[in-house]
Amino acid sequence: MLSWPSREKRLHSAIGYITPKDKLNWREKEIFAERDRKLYQARELRKMRRCGRNQPGKEAAQCYI
Description:
Elements: H1 5-9, H2 20-24, H3 28-51
C-alpha cells in the first residue's frame, strides 16, 4: 500500500473526523470513546465553575443547573 500524506494526517468529516489510517486500523471506537470521556470531563468542569464550587464561601445551592 502506498503512503499518502492525507491518509496519515488529514481528518475527514465523512468518517467522523478521524484519519483514514485510523479508520483502516479499526481505531475509531477507541478514538470516539476518548473524545466522549474528554467532553464529559469538560462539561463537569464547566458545571463546577458555573456553580461557583471552586470559589470559597459559595454554597452549592446557588447553582440552578
